[in-house]
Amino acid sequence: MDAAPSTVERRAFTEVRTSGRRLEGYAATFGAEAQLGTFVETIEPGAFRSAITGDVLALLDHDAGKVLGRTRSGTLRLSEDSRGLAFSLDIPDTAAGRDVLTLADRGDLGGMSFGFNVPKGGEHWSGNRRSLRTIGLREISVVSAWPAYPDTELALRAIRSGNDALRRLRILTLARAGQWA
């Protein structure tokens, strides 16, 4: 089962911390299992290697009208380490940026998400298990929703970690209802 390269999928994580006007953490982690409806998905180390060299946006809630940064301008920095896709985002002094910082300070952020496509040959299926080997990263998003991958943890200074399966299912349902333009 190969996904068409133009099909954009979204996944959420909750590994975020603030430092001044900077948000840092992980937009994705390797090896964590996500129960996505009828299948289980994991991301393999190296899956983002080629994608992080392109122009990737940082958005608020996957909204292209609320750009928080981008790799091309240097306001978003991405790297892949042994744990996953790490990011560092300089938050702008815009309405969306101020909202993100306020929510982070209050402990109200749900975490991070990312929009991607899977290039031909970038996934491996074994029964109902999907392993992502190569990811075409389009954007990362600061979200107020719940994570698809339960093994990540929220690292905001003033936030409690932990989300239940029902919340994860709700965000997946909402993500599937939306379309990438």
TrEMBL record:
Entry keyword set? Hydrolase, Protease, Viral release from host cell
What would you give as a GO molecular function for this chain, any one? peptidase activity
| Record carries keyword Hydrolase | yes
List each copy of the Prohead serine protease domain by range.
19-156
A biological process (GO) of this protein is: proteolysis
Recorded protein name is: HK97 family phage prohead protease
